[in-house]
Amino acid sequence: MEKESLGEPVKIRTNYFEVTKMPKMKIIHYVIMIKPEVPPRLNRKIFNHFSEKNQEALGGVRPVFDGKTNMFTHKPLPFESNSFDVKLEKGSEPISRIRSSETFKITIRKARDIDMEDLSQFLHAKGKMTNNCQIAITAMDTIISYEISAKYPTVCKSFYTSQGARSLFGDIEAWQGYYQSARPTMGKMMINIDVIATAFYESGPLIQMIAKILGLRSPKDLREGLSDKDRQNVEKRIKNLKISDNHRVENRRKFKIMKLTQTPASYTMFDGVDGSKTDVKTYFQNKYNIRLLYPFLPCVVVSKNKYLPIEVCDVIPGQRYMGKDTNLANEMTNFARQNPNIRADKIKACLNILNYKENEYLKQFGMEISNDMTVVNARILPTPTIQYHQSSRENRVQPNGGSWNLRNKKVINGATLGSWSVLVFSNSSDQAIEFFVRELIVTCQDTGMNIFERKPPICRENPIGNTEESLKKAWLRAGNSAKAKPQLILCILPNTGSHLYAEIKRVSDTVIGVATQCVQSTHTIKPKKQYCANVCLKMNVKLGGENSFLIPEHIQFLADEPTILMGADVTYPLPGDIKCLSYAALCGSMDAKASRYAASIRVQSGRTGIIKDLANMVKELLKIFYQTCGRKPKKILFYRNGVSKSQFIKVLECELTAIKETPHPIQGADRTGNCFPGTVVDMNITHPHPLEFDFCK
Fold first, then answer.
1. 3.30.530.60, 1.20.1260.10, 3.20.20.140, 3.90.1150.10: CATH of 14-21+116-200+323-372
2. Which of the residues 154, 258, 582, 689 has an alpha carbon 20 to 30 A from that of 56?
3. Which residues form the Piwi domain (predicted)?
4. Taking the C-alpha atoms of 430, 432, 433 and 439 in order, what is their torsion angle to the nearest 10 degrees?
5. Tell me: the pLDDT tens digits for 263-272?
6. Which is nearest to 457 in space by CA: 428, 485, 487, 419?
7. Spatial strand order in the sheet of 254-256
8. Tens digits of residue pLDDT in 512-534
9. What is the model's pTM?
């Protein structure tokens, strides 16, 4: 049987929607510049205002704009290049220290005509992905998202709605979002739509937000004022937040918070119009006949010598929260987790919001999009057989539903652990910790590991103390106890908090140079055998052991010739974070079984998408492969994650060059509604060119 036809054929619904009618005309691409420079959200507002007010100058054309530098029209404008002044209504946007102007200059210059026939040739595998094709896809992305971006908070290709928002904690709430992107597939363009979520600040009275930040029941609990510590915490949380004042209903203004005053409103002084000094409390009493209810709270500073009492400020809706709170990731995961049926229903609801059929911009460009999820052919690949140690009662296993356990099985190669310690950051009792360690040791022994040190030293440290010093103490205790170089530190963590985990990994990997295994304290209470087995597998690999491997029949392409598998990715800092760096990581298999992997990592500046030092990283892993199995690989199978459509060609060219230059029913589903494990889609909605070897799983 041909490999491409292995498995059980099935049909599955996908979150792809066919572009049933493509633009026939040439799309005109213009480059646009808006001065002074502002964020994309404000760019869109300026452009929308410009488009509405200059229809005659634009020849009746309603252009679309990506919020950055690209503008597209369905026919040429009456000019090749031109400049326009755009004035926003006063107070429609917060005035910051950097930008005090509400007048902007838009410069438009024609860049190219986009021939859509090039894209058609590419979709039918008759042409290559040219720059013209790339710009055509960018134009389609812009066309489908332009109208929605004017109505909802938008980030790149995603928009968010407050409908169904859920309060998370404090002043933060989770909003439902939707992602849409134009994708080239075999013979046609598709629109990929998915459900996402992100955190936003709750809108409403600023004083209500501050009460929530401090964990108070209501603003009434603020009547004693703020301590220096509370004021600093609040200031850190609300800095750069956009607010509007509410003491002049007929003329509400928008501002951005710079900081809080160190003095309450009743003692915050400023120069009046007549040169005399007055405090904010008295000023609002005399000027607006407003008697402040909270004169003992600090004021919001919105510009130099401009102060607003907290109680006259409202938080503007639709502001993303970019912080890294301890519990935020878990809360967002719980909010976003949905079974496939609910997810499909939400995607259908998104279609009602997008309303493609009535979208005037799609009509203008001659585009039509189906409202039906595309049904594609797929295959459920045969379940692989996993090999464990020959002495196991069950040395071979076929997973059932994508899962299996370690009962009656031993790892292929059990590591030896002789020098280790336990570092406790939680308030678990000594008895509970000792019992957990005993259970873990028994499980490790049963699964084939060799634990020489049965009573490792137990150290207790403060979770908010100096983590580096704590790990160094545990390292010394391990070494002194076993009279050997420490191999592992088992860390018992409180049940909440990601900062501690991150700091443990930073110190252990980059300062001390020792493996760490973290467990949450909740699992140390009446520890379950399966949990201990999972921890054992992680420990075994970290200590150089080997857990299992696929039998050779399932990876014949690896067994026929020495082949190394590699996987690469780049992580980026959060938007707006100018201090953090990007990290490029590459992992590679160490032998023909592809069951053990080594890693190489590099730090990169900024948001660079291409792995700069890939040649040396590949070289490192090729050496490890040779040292491990004594043979040089003849083939490299390279997986690359995290590359956008716009970056793909450049990444392919640069990174492939670097590697070469290196020395050498309608939907089958499981009980949760997901596709069965092993389902692979390698047709219909994959890349138009078979050489790309694109697939979904």
1. 3.30.530.60
2. 154
3. 488-661
4. 140
5. 999 999 998 7
6. 419
7. 204-205, 313-315, 242-245, 254-256
8. 999 999 999 999 998 999 999 99
9. 0.83
